[in-house]
Automatic annotation (TrEMBL):
Keywords: Apoplast, Cell wall, Cytoplasm, Disulfide bond, Manganese, Metal-binding, Oxidoreductase, Secreted. It catalyses: oxalate + O2 + 2 H(+) = H2O2 + 2 CO2. The keyword DNA-binding does not apply. The lineage of its organism: Eukaryota, Viridiplantae, Streptophyta, Embryophyta, Tracheophyta. One of its GO terms (cellular component) is apoplast. Produces developmental and stress-related release of hydrogen peroxide in the apoplast. May play an important role in several aspects of plant growth and defense mechanisms. GO terms for molecular function: manganese ion binding; oxalate oxidase activity. This is Germin-like protein. It comes from Triticum aestivum.
Length: 177
């Protein structure tokens, strides 16, 4: 029986499928948040596919913020390499308990899977952290962007009621983006 030649596909795996260079480079923190995330996940390293791990470098300017966000498919463990960070996460309803800690160089903090969390550099020097994530594609949902910048937009009626604010406040927040 003859097998069609188009069914015989050869896959070549090379070292570059398991390699990334660039975490030694500082991210550009000249933005409204004062932070930059350099991701190393399955998009950057194809060899991470099915491995269940990824990594990020986060740079923070003084007063820089990695804003409240969640990783729907991953727990995160963060290690401070330089500077000092105020970090925290919030449990889900009904408790909405806020767990927070100030971390110094070498300190480690865990953000449980799916919970809203943040990091803030309340110091006056640059800070750097490395975080490992328990998924090759952890995803990220930044809370403010999801609520105020979604396309199509969430109805003003929904946002004003959810946040118990006037429409002009919602308009002002949306204009910041």
């Amino acid at each position: 029986m003859k097998i069609a030649s188009y069914l015989c596909i050869k896959f070549y795996i090379v070292a570059e499928d398991f390699f990334f260079s660039g975490l030694h480079l500082a991210g550009n923190t000249a933005n409204k948040q004062g932070s930059a995330v350099t991701a190393v996940n399955v998009v950057q390293i194809g060899g991470l596919n099915t491995m269940g791990i990824s990594l990020v470098r986060i740079d923070y300017a003084p007063n820089g913020l990695n804003p409240p966000h969640t990783h729907p498919r991953s727990t995160e463990i963060l290690t401070v390499l330089e500077g000092c960070l105020h970090v925290g996460f919030v449990t889900s309803d009904p408790e909405n308990r806020h767990f927070t800690k100030v971390l110094a160089k070498g300190d480690v903090f865990v953000f449980p899977k799916g919970l809203v969390h943040y990091q803030f550099n309340n110091g006056n020097t640059h800070a750097v952290a490395i975080a490992a994530l328990s998924s090759q594609n952890p995803g990220v949902i930044t809370v403010a962007n999801a609520v105020f910048v979604s396309e199509p937009a969430i109805s003003d009626d929904v946002i004003t009621k959810a946040f118990q604010v006037e429409k002009n406040t919602v308009d002002w927040i949306q204009a910041q983006f």
